[in-house]
Amino acid sequence: MNNTQVYPVKAFQDNYIWTIHNQTHAVIVDPGDSQPVLEFLASRKLTLSAILITHHHADHVGGIMNIIDNCNVPVYGPKTESIPKITHQLVEGDEVRLDQLDLTFNILDIPGHTSGHIAYFDDQRVFCGDTLFSCGCGRIFEGTPPQMFQSLEKLAHLPDSTEVYCTHEYTLSNIKFARAVEPNNSALADYEHLINFKMSNQQVSLPTSIGFEKSVNPFLRCNEPTVIQAAQAKTHETLSNAIEVFATIRKWKNDF
Ligand SMILES: [Zn+2]
Q1: This prediction's pTM
Q2: Which has fewest Cβ within 10 Å: 13, 130, 212, 231?
Q3: Above 80 in pLDDT, residue 1?
Q4: What are the structural domains, with CATH classification, of the chain?
Q5: 154 CA distance to ligand 1 centroid (A)?
Q6: Is-catalytic flag, 69?
């Protein structure tokens, strides 16, 4: 087990800029803003080693310029998206070695939310940007429902123990939708109690885990009879496969 910790630096309304550190060195993921990151690094006397980017949206990349003006470090990001100041362009199968933190991340291509979205994973954690959320998934802005479904399947095939670091605090509102899809899922009812408690105590709901998400996240449960039935009741059609179920509940969530 690696000796690093992960800390959520809060930004904007509900973004987390995940900061992985070993008390000396730090790596940050998706710095949409620079000021809270620079303040956190200074307050903990951490030296920045690298910046990891999952996709090109402004609330994930907006802080890069100002941060590298202060500390000139490599910036890793997806090869197929236009992002300022990227020094290392990544595609699925690539590796990111962060020697100062004794970490190596592998890359997955997970298109759908954006067309070049990537995830960083090792045997303990995955940083998946705006693709997988707790009890939800990202909106499909640039890809197609089959692409997004396959991207979520890739993430679901990581080991159940993998900690999932998503970029937004959307868990409670996602649970409300998930409860509409699966009102009788008792794991989901328990989760709602837990997250209500955490939110009313100003706690962070994340990370979640791949194994747990498979029990509560409707977008990872498109083969479950309860989710299929709920999707069919919504469209009044017979849905013949999990991708159609996924596309139906994604559309349902857009209007929820
Ligand atoms: Zn995004």
Answers
A1: 0.97
A2: 13
A3: no
A4: 5-165 (3.60.15.10)
A5: 18
A6: no
